[in-house]
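Residues and backbone
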Amino acid sequence: MRLIMPYSSQWKKRMEDNFSPQQSLQLIENMIKKVRSDISENRFYFLMWGWITFLALLTQFVLKVVVNYPHHYLVWLCVIPAVILTIVRSNRPRGRSVRTYVGDSMKFLWMGIGISFFVLCFVITNTRGGWYIAYPFFILFYGLGTFVSGMFLKFRPLIIGGVFNWLLACVCVLLPYDYQLLVSAAAILTSYIIPGHIIQKPIADTHGRKTVE
């Protein structure tokens, strides 16, 4: 990825120019718009993983509760093609892009949450009966990521989704494992799918740059 100007040197230059408060606020607003535009361009991943997880949770519930299929967990093998597709698409050549403080903060936030998911799965797998208490923690992480992202982007659907996920995590811990699957599906719906469909696609301005309405 070619950088036009790293955000650190860009920020330093702005400060040296003694921006007025209004100009500083405008700079921050432009950074937020840039990140929102990037997210809208890449919402394919947001929606793909949201729908795959949502449908997998519902399918697992049906297989376990309705059909009584003993290997209901095998439904999660569907994520393997999704992982391959994500890797292939993410490695495609891209045009030049500008890094921003907000964009990097978002990247590090979700990187940290992703690592936490892997660590949590390792802990749960090596804990007796761990998977029966796993979903409240998963929902808690969903809420954290979407709430902080929404605050960064000033995007209300993500903020509301994050708060709702925290409430669902509290409800989930009080329910039997089977119904935790349904609560988790509701969490994915409100934190990934609905915000992913609401955020608008980027449009080109008069200079050919992509922005979000």
